[in-house]
Amino acid sequence: MNKHSGNTFRDGIGEIGEKVSIMKPSVYFRWIFTQMTVSTFSGQSIAESIRLLREKRPLVHCLTNEVVQEITANVLLAAGASPAMVVAEEEAPFFAGVAGGLLINIGTPYPARLRAMHSSVDAARSAGHPWVLDPVAAGGIPWRDGIISEFVEKHPDVIRGNASEILALSGTKSGGKGVDSTDSSDAAIEAAERLARKIEGVVCVTGETDYITDGERTIAVKGGHPMATLVVGTGCSLSALVSAFCAITEDRVLATASACALAKKAAEKAIETARGPGSFHNEYLDALYTLQPEDFL
Amino acid sequence: MNKHSGNTFRDGIGEIGEKVSIMKPSVYFRWIFTQMTVSTFSGQSIAESIRLLREKRPLVHCLTNEVVQEITANVLLAAGASPAMVVAEEEAPFFAGVAGGLLINIGTPYPARLRAMHSSVDAARSAGHPWVLDPVAAGGIPWRDGIISEFVEKHPDVIRGNASEILALSGTKSGGKGVDSTDSSDAAIEAAERLARKIEGVVCVTGETDYITDGERTIAVKGGHPMATLVVGTGCSLSALVSAFCAITEDRVLATASACALAKKAAEKAIETARGPGSFHNEYLDALYTLQPEDFL
Amino acid sequence: MNKHSGNTFRDGIGEIGEKVSIMKPSVYFRWIFTQMTVSTFSGQSIAESIRLLREKRPLVHCLTNEVVQEITANVLLAAGASPAMVVAEEEAPFFAGVAGGLLINIGTPYPARLRAMHSSVDAARSAGHPWVLDPVAAGGIPWRDGIISEFVEKHPDVIRGNASEILALSGTKSGGKGVDSTDSSDAAIEAAERLARKIEGVVCVTGETDYITDGERTIAVKGGHPMATLVVGTGCSLSALVSAFCAITEDRVLATASACALAKKAAEKAIETARGPGSFHNEYLDALYTLQPEDFL
To answer: Does an H or E element contain A83, and which?
Structure first.
């Protein structure tokens, strides 16, 4: 390990220099994680975001799938935000104008919910509030892909997905097995950058390493633990957390990286005492709550 | 602390004398909790309610919001009742005539579910079974406020809400931030009493102290722990527990106070070993299960 | 205890000889569990099924009730399968053709979801994929009974229910209290055998002992712990687990018995450290994850 990389590896966050972005990802990342010495987002920036989250406790309006509503609310509460699931088309757009951030998760879409989602996105955009798209299982089901495209065309502030989903959205290839990724996040970096430029927003591809890009600068957040993939909703609730950080931070790349860094460090703390996915779930929520800004310095 | 207050403070339940109800709540409650010597509901009454709950295991029909269905069922099971979520308009009213108690929670309303709720309320009333209204986020969204009003006009046996919700329902002022209260329960006592007289039922305003009133007598239940507010559904599931106790106890004030006392003591037991909201959730369920009637004596 | 019964009692799985099936169940089972010496499914077979499950990680398409979606996904993930809840009628049948197994759980039916369920069943049958029916609360609500009958007529590969549900489905008698069984599984064996012959599939009646039958051979799986009945969704998620095993094993009786054996052993492991239903839930998920094939030898 490079002697200059101490700080980067301790906080697990580093910027990928544009000059090396022509390398093939797989080669590049073997290199970057032994050589990386540049870090845009210091632990200090992440710590400041977390401090701000807990001070402001932003209200996050979640239109998410049927399976993960409880863990999504609990992740937001544990981390320091305030969740609200206002889902009827009759009231969701009103609430989107009130809440600090909006999450649209396409895990279990159906017509009435989709109408609520679209009107909420429109209301959030009118109010100037950020919204995050979680394109669950993109590339796997034709009907759903059409739905997701309609949301992508509305320029989400952030898209958060796994590698298979981001690859599918960028048109590179379709993949995934149900809601699980069959691709490594490393393989989706170029796709993410291309997609980010297209939506003029931020794309976050999560996996063993999370990559956050606005199409120009790309940040890597390392860490976490694969046990998180055995608890349903850890990915979906991360998208909600991204929305919470976006509600308090203008810099969407920093906001998204802060959410990823908090989730990964919480997973690392959780695995210290977890004996399986059941205890991991609780330890993860406990860690989101007990982690302090200074733990990221 | 007053030497006569031992029992009251041990079980945390006391009646507020009507003679002092002209005092401003904030002043009054500072006084009542240092001076209170009157206790209508002895720990003995609460213990007897809990004993009866576990003997009868009442079937509680829950029409609640999308986010909290699992914790609601688990809270009822742990405490000693039997939950059932029969939600389609085609079958909900039939089931409301069979179940011992009914919960109507307006957390995620939409037209089909609202039709099921209304017909279930009508069926429960025809059968003479108690029903509890949880007016989630009352005062926050105009469309929802219209919906909640329609249920209030059907005279719920009990309304259980936080201070912002009860204040909004009584017309005092609107408040709340999403589903969270921004007001102290102490500030909502008069509003609760007025609302109770209007519905000719019981109103329970929960918070640091829970107040239960039928408009004439008002009971305070102290205790609990704020960590409960970081677990989604602890309030919503308390409303289900109120419905369970109402199914076995004619005295609705005692039934509601018993539910509050059980929930608060379970929270106190949970916090002894919880390290955050994840472990608190489980410890809370464990405590609802392990607490015995004699723990309230 | 019979000296030959060691292996049977260690793995808790034994076949009920047809020759004794004319005995009254209650008498018969007192006998069988002290005398049983025949075991078709050795621990070896169960172990092999579990090994195969983890190797293949089958994708299970779950159309289940609103209350238990999270625990159902988490049980599948912990055990080694891959859950997906694709619920809209517009996409569910497409996905049923892709997934390895399908679960239909009638816990909270309503028209749109029922259309998705029917078209998914049709798609799974066309693709030759197994599907499992969980007839929640059969016998309790007339409208629901009509719905369940329509699915029974489509010949599920497996029906998994409690004794009251299986008795109701076989026309023996209706029972149950909401979603809970009021009958012992022992009392439903003949009903299960009759129903299995009718659907030309497998019927699994769960309880203190689980019985799995194709109408000709009947397997008993003993063990487990009643605390599981205080966690909502342990039964529903077992049906999902049955679907997962059916996706990788042609022998539906073995597949179903493997799911039951895994669930029962996980419950036994969970109760060792659980202090109530909250901690049991997590310990159960941890045990599903940590149990290894060799634990069944």
So the answer is: strand A82-84
> CA nearest B193: which of B174, B220, B223, B230?
B220
pLDDT at B25: 39
Q: Between residues 3 and 42 of chain B, which touch chain A (CB distance below 8 Å)? A: none
Helices A277-290 and B277-290 meet at what angle, rounded to 10? 120
Between A140, A232, A282, which is nearest C83 by CB?
A232
Residue A55, number of CB atoms within 10 A of its CB: 10
- Does residue B278 belong to the interface with chain C, where contact is any CB pair within 8 Å? no
In a mutational test of the B interface, the residue from A69, A98, A115 whose CB has the highest number of chain B CBs within 10 Å is: A69
Place of tokens 């602390």: B1
Token digits of residue C207:
């309880």
The reply to whether B236 touches chain C by the CB within 8 Å rule is no
pLDDT in tens, A152-191: 999 999 999 999 999 999 987 645 555 566 678 889 999 9
CA angle C204, C209, C214 (to 5 degrees): 30
Q: Which residue has the tokens 């009945």?
A: C229
Contact call for residues C185 and C205 (beta carbons, < 8 A):
yes
Instruction: Please tell me what DSSP assigns to residue A135.
Output: -
pLDDT at B185: 87
Work out the average pLDDT over C39-54: 89
The pLDDT, as a whole number, for residue A50 is: 98
B232 touches chain C (CB under 8 A): no
User: Under an 8 A CB cutoff, do A78 and B279 touch?
Assistant: no
Virtual torsion, Cα A217, A223, A228, A232, nearest 10 deg: -10
- Rg over alpha carbons for chain C, rounded to the nearest Å, is 18
The whole-number pLDDT of residue B234 equals: 98
For chain B, say whether A179 makes contact (Cβ under 8 Å): no
**Residue C287 touches chain A, beta carbons under 8 Å:** yes
Q: What's the rounded mean pLDDT across residues C83-107?
A: 97
* pTM of the model as a whole: 0.90
A29-67 pLDDT, tens digit per residue, is: 433 443 333 345 789 999 999 999 999 999 999 999 999
Nearest alpha-carbon partner for A73 in B40, B186, B235: B235
Q: Distance between CA atoms of C116 and C94, rounded to whole angstroms? A: 10
Q: Tell me the average pLDDT of chain A.
A: 88
Distance of alpha carbon C155 from alpha carbon C169, whole angstroms: 13
User: What is the nearest CA distance from B168 to chain A, expressed in angstroms?
Assistant: 17
A287 close contact with B: CB closer than 8 A: yes
Given a contact cutoff of 8 angstroms between Cβ atoms, the answer to whether B193 and B203 are in contact is yes
Q: Nearest-CA residue of chain B relative to A282?
A: B278
Element spanning A279, H or E: helix A277-290
Q: Do C107 and B88 touch (CB under 8 A)?
A: no
Mean pLDDT to the nearest integer, B170-179: 64
